[in-house]
Specification:
CATH topology: 2,3-Dihydroxybiphenyl 1,2-Dioxygenase, domain 1
Number of domains: 1
Largest sheet: 8 strands, mixed, barrel
Helix content: 10-25%
Radius of gyration: 20 Å
CATH superfamily: 2,3-Dihydroxybiphenyl 1,2-Dioxygenase, domain 1
Length: 360
């Protein structure tokens, strides 16, 4: 394992083709035993979201673009043309529905963005884009910019996000989110006593308030094009990732590399020296597409690197906390049902691939 610090995965972005599709997705995830918390509209009034907060502190963000005439949204005199231009300039504009992005926690105050940019300057100068004047980018990441959201109860939440350089989108690099207001406002923890409430405290990752026993993220799988012409791009992407994340093994092959991430819960409670099945590092795998289905999917995403599959940790049936809900079901059935519904409704909802990994 490399000596780089292990950043924490903050959340995953799951885009839907419409707000109506997001509502259907909320109902689907709820029927599968996930507790879904409605978030609210983002400060730019371009998107709205709902959250699936996991006990390890990572959350899945269900998101959709708001229409110009969205109910309850005051455009403040903004014309449709002005709104359309802002939407087209949005970071996720034009993305195919499903898993579209991943976010790491912090980055600014802890110096991780600055450090990764410095490593890029020192170790990977050829990766950095150049401007029309020939000037080289200062690093992998741009300057942070303000973001925010208003919760349904009226709380004003603020943060700063730091995105990769626009010229590096094919590397599928994560972005960073630095909280200005307390993270507990942005990511409400779920109480075991009241599954529908949002409590401002951190829960133990060993137990789950979700009826299906969901504990957290086990692994992420990113696919890259396997064409000979794209081999250099894949190697560059792996090199860029290695400036941010520790690798699981220095002996990873050129076509299959695995990196490691921490979780917000593990980061808050200190090191992971005492690793349990529910607090182990998240594995992030980057590899070439290997099957026709994977290649076809990647082509639909534009042919560049993209998040293909998310694997969740779940408790076995006997370990599910029965106080969370009386609707607990066998986890195997939940997994099979999700895959069936995902297959049937992927075109309608833009559902990404999800697998379940059962904690022993």
């Amino acid at each position: 394992m490399s000596s780089l610090p292990m950043p924490a995965l903050d959340h995953l972005i799951h885009l839907h083709p419409s707000v109506a599709a997001m509502e259907s997705s909320i109902a689907l995830y709820s029927s599968l035993g996930f507790l879904v918390t409605r978030g609210g509209n983002h400060a730019d009034l371009l998107t709205t979201n709902a959250l699936i907060v996991l006990p390890d502190g990572v959350y899945i963000e269900l998101i959709a673009f708001l229409e110009y005439e969205a109910e309850g949204v005051d455009r403040g005199g903004e014309t449709r043309q002005e709104w359309q231009l802002r939407r087209e300039q949005h970071w996720w504009s034009g993305k195919k529905e499903g898993w579209i992005d991943w976010c790491l926690a912090g980055g600014v105050a802890d110096g991780q963005v600055e450090a990764s940019n410095a490593r890029a300057q020192e170790q990977a100068q050829p990766l950095l884009p150049t401007s029309t004047t020939g000037a080289t980018s200062p690093g992998l990441y741009k300057s942070p910019r303000a973001g925010g959201r208003t919760t349904l109860r009226g709380d004003q939440i603020k943060w700063k996000v730091t995105f990769p350089d626009d010229a590096l989108t094919s590397y599928a690099l994560p972005f960073w989110c630095e909280d200005v207001t307390p993270r507990s406002l942005r990511v409400p923890s779920l109480s075991l006593e009241d599954e529908g409430s949002a409590q401002n405290h951190t829960r133990s990752p060993k137990r789950s308030a979700h009826p299906n026993g969901a504990l957290g993220i086990h692994s992420l799988l990113f696919l890259f094009n396997d064409d000979d012409d794209e081999e250099e791009r894949f190697e560059e992407a792996v090199k860029a990732w290695s400036l941010l994340l520790p690798r699981e093994s220095q002996s990873d092959s050129d076509s299959d590399s695995t990196f490691l991430l921490s979780t917000p819960s593990a980061a808050e409670h200190g090191s992971q020296s005492r690793t349990t099945s529910s607090s182990a590092p998240i594995k992030v795998q980057a590899r070439h597409a290997q099957t026709k289905a994977e290649r076809d999917w990647l082509a639909q995403c534009g042919g560049t690197g993209a998040l293909y599959e998310v694997e969740l940790r779940l408790q076995r049936e006997g370990e599910v906390d029965r106080t969370a809900s009386s609707s607990s079901r066998r986890l195997q059935e939940a997994g099979e049902r999700f895959e069936r519904l995902r297959s049937e409704r992927e075109r309608e909802l833009g559902l990404g691939r999800m697998k379940f990994w059962y904690v022993a």
